[in-house]
Specification:
- It is globular and about 60 Å long.
- The chain has two domains: about 200 residues, Response regulator (Rossmann fold), CATH 3.40.50; about 150 residues, 3-Layer(aba) Sandwich (Rossmann fold).
- The strands form two sheets. The chain has an eight-stranded mixed β-sheet with strand order 1-2-4-3-5-6-7-13, sandwiched between helices.
- By secondary structure, the chain is of the alpha/beta class.
- The chain contains twelve helices and 15 strands.
C-alpha cells in the first residue's frame, strides 16, 4: 500500500481496512483515516469537500466555505477557485456548502438555507468558516459573531459590516467595493461627451449594498435616476424609461429579477434578462462583473472573485498560524480587470481606439 500524498482530495471518503492485524500495525503509523465528511445539499445546491492527508498525527484544520449562491455562478466559482489556490499548500479539510439564494429568493428559502448552514456548522464543528456574500452573513453567520467559535472570515460583503455585528473578536474578512471610478473612466474614453448615468440594478441585498458606491461617481458624472426593479416586466419598463434621460446605464446585478411578483417565483435566467436589455437598449451598459460584459454590456472594470477567495484564505492561514480574527484588519478588495465587448461597441456604432484595445485585460469579439 502506497503512502498517500500530502494533497487534497475532492471526494468525501472513508477508508475501510480489511487487512490482517499485522498489516494494520505496519500501515497505521503512515496512514491517517479520513472521517466521513457531512454531505449537505439544499434544493439545487450541493456540498463538496476536499481533504488533505498527511503522515502527521495532527488533524487537518476543518474549514467550511458557505456560499450564499449556487455552484456554476461565475462569481461563486471564482471565489472557490481563489480559496483552493491559497490553501493548496496547507493541511485542511475543506467543505463547501451552497445556499442557492440567487436563483431562489423567497424569504422562507433564505431562512431555511441559513438554518441548514447553521446545522452543518453545529454538526461538523469547523475550526474556521468562510462566508461568501451577504446572505451567508444575514441568515447564518451573524449569529456566531462575538462567540468563541467558530472563527469566521467573510468575503464578498456589500452591506455595512455593522449590520452583521462585524468585525468581532472571532470575525474578519474582505469587503466588496465596485470599481465605479475606473469603470466610468473606461466608458468616458468611448463616449467623451457622456455625463448622465442611470443606475438600473435588481432588487437584492447585493445591489442594495453596492448602491452607496454607485451613487457616488466622479464629479464629471451625474446620477440621473436609480431603479431597482424586482420583476422582469418592471425591469423592461425601467430600461425603456431611462433611454431619454441618460447617456449610459450602470448595471450592478440582474440575477434576482423574477418572472412575476410571486415571492416564491424563481429568478429569470440572468442571460435572458441581459439579452433582452441589449436588444432593446440604445444606451451603452456599464458593468462591474465579468458576466455583465460577457452577456452584452459594453465596458467595465471588474471585481475579482478570485481575489476575494484568495484574500479570505490567506486570512484563514493567519488564523491557522495562531492569530485571532480580531487581530486581522478587515480589507477592501482592490484588484480588478478591465473588460470591453467589441461586438456591443460595433452594434452601438462606437469606434474603439486601438490603444484602448491594447490596454484592456479582457476583450470580447476581438
Amino acid at each position: 500500500m502506497k503512502k498517500p500524498k500530502n494533497t487534497m482530495s475532492i471526494t468525501t471518503c472513508r477508508y475501510c481496512f480489511a487487512f490482517s492485524s499485522i498489516l494494520i500495525m505496519l500501515c497505521g503509523s503512515i496512514m491517517t483515516g479520513c472521517k466521513k465528511s457531512p454531505s449537505h445539499a439544499l434544493g439545487a445546491s450541493a456540498s463538496d469537500s476536499k481533504q488533505q492527508l498527511s503522515s502527521d498525527a495532527q488533524p487537518a484544520t476543518k474549514v467550511l466555505l458557505i456560499h450564499s449562491y449556487h455552484t456554476g455562478y461565475p462569481w461563486v466559482d471564482a471565489i472557490t477557485r481563489g480559496v483552493r489556490m491559497a490553501l493548496s499548500d496547507v493541511r485542511v479539510d475543506l467543505q463547501v456548502y451552497y445556499m442557492d439564494t440567487k436563483r431562489r429568493t423567497s424569504e422562507q428559502w433564505k431562512r431555511t438555507a441559513g438554518e441548514k448552514a447553521c446545522d452543518l456548522i453545529n454538526e461538523w464543528q469547523p475550526d474556521i468558516v468562510i462566508g461568501a456574500d451577504d446572505n451567508a452573513q444575514q441568515y447564518c453567520l451573524k449569529k456566531y459573531a462575538g462567540q468563541s467559535s467558530p472563527q469566521i472570515v467573510f468575503c464578498g460583503v456589500n452591506a455595512a459590516l455593522e449590520k452583521y455585528g462585524y468585525p468581532a473578536s472571532n470575525v474578519t474578512g474582505v469587503q466588496e467595493k465596485p470599481h465605479v471610478e475606473e469603470s466610468l473612466d473606461m466608458f468616458q474614453k468611448l463616449r467623451p461627451d457622456a455625463r448622465r448615468i442611470a443606475i438600473v440594478t435588481d432588487d437584492s441585498p447585493t445591489s442594495d449594498g453596492a448602491l452607496k458606491f454607485l451613487q457616488s461617481p466622479p464629479e464629471s458624472f451625474e446620477i440621473v435616476t436609480v431603479k431597482t426593479p424586482s420583476t422582469f416586466e418592471t425591469w423592461k419598463k425601467a430600461i425603456e424609461e431611462v433611454q431619454s434621460m441618460a447617456d449610459g446605464i450602470a448595471t450592478y446585478m440582474y440575477h434576482t429579477v423574477k418572472a412575476d411578483a410571486n415571492d416564491h417565483s424563481e429568478s429569470v435566467e440572468p442571460e435572458k434578462v441581459m439579452a433582452w436589455t441589449v436588444d432593446h437598449c440604445r444606451l451603452p451598459i456599464i458593468g462591474f462583473f465579468i458576466f455583465t460584459v460577457d452577456d452584452g454590456g459594453l465596458v467595465g472594470y471588474l471585481e475579482s472573485g478570485v481575489e476575494h477567495g484568495m484574500e479570505a484564505a490567506r486570512m484563514v492561514k493567519q488564523i491557522m498560524a495562531g492569530k485571532t480574527p480580531g487581530d486581522i484588519p478587515v480589507k477592501t478588495a482592490l484588484q480588478g480587470q478591465s473588460m470591453l465587448n467589441l461586438i456591443t461597441a460595433r452594434k452601438l456604432g462606437i469606434e474603439v481606439p486601438a490603444e484602448m484595445i491594447k490596454n484592456t485585460d479582457i476583450i470580447v469579439g476581438k
